[in-house]
Amino acid sequence: MNAELLNRGLGAQRRSALVWGIALLILTASVLAVWPSMNESGSLESLVSGMSPELIAALGLEALASPAGFLNGNLYALLLPLLFAVLGIMHMNALTAGDEDAGRLELLLALPVSRVSVYLNRFVSVVLVLAGIALLVGVTVGFGAPALDMELDTEGVVAATLSIFLLALLHAALALALAGLGLRAGIVLAGSFGVLVLGYLVYALLPMIESLDGLAAASPWHWALGEKPLENGFDGTGIALLIGGSIVLAVIGLIAIRRRTIRTA
Predict the structure, then answer these.
(1) What is the DSSP string of 108-147?
(2) What H or E segment, with its residue span, contains residue 201?
């Protein structure tokens, strides 16, 4: 690791990370804050009473009247994983393909530093930003829920937060791989977002089709959320798949950037 390169990567993300961190903190706190009134009104179950069981499962709205079900339906089943993954993709793309398209990467590589070192340190800087914001969200839920009489298992909160972090990390690593292969920033974004959305559709919709139910297990969303970590705790297999997939994609990106010519603009 190179401290100067790592600091440059973190510095380039500082303003965006601050905005994202505040926005996700406000989102999380807002969802927590409405729990007491929604719970006392007794109207939570009626919100999904007219929906099919398959659609309820697809949207993560099961047991909506319980604290874990409420947070799943409003945060952990879709919103937080999606937003964290978008954050990881956008930052990774900006620091790799985006800088290369703008001609800034060529100037940096004119210095006595290797391409692999630049990309690796920038990837680590994105990992640190994602981890910091995930920690902020996890602490907010961990301390805010008990204050609002929401009975949640601490292990479940940690497991769910880790899962959404690792899902975002996997998609950031995908963006790194695509950028390393030389694709332009717009294509990297389109490809990474496409995989993100397709993965959710496979995870959420295929279980509605009995003959295709087993294919949902191939989705990274299933690896992260399929075992309902907020309620059931850590899923070792899913965590291993997410970490392993991230490492493989990152290695592909680092090998590819070493072997090709850098675009000048």
Answers:
(1) HHTSS--HHHHHHHHHHHHHHHHHHHHHHHHHHHHHHHHH
(2) helix 185-205
103: how many CB neighbours lie within 10 A of its CB? Answer: 12
Here the tokens at position 231 are: 């309620």
Residue 202 contacts residue 215 (beta carbons within 8 Å): yes
CB 85 within 8 A of CB 196: yes
pLDDT tens by residue, 63-113: 666 788 888 888 888 899 999 999 999 999 999 988 888 778 777 777 777
CA–CA distance, 186 with 102 (Å, rounded to integer): 12
DSSP at 262: P
CA distance 148 to 70: 13
At 26, the amino acid letter reads I
The pTM score is 0.90
Which tokens go with 228? 């309902």
pLDDT < 70 regions, the chain: 38-65, 208, 210-213, 263-265
40, two tokens? 């006392």
Q: Is the dihedral of CA 66, 68, 73, 75 positive or negative?
A: positive
* Among candidate residues 242, 94, 116, the one with its CA nearest the CA of residue 171: 242
Structure tokens at 88: 């990881």
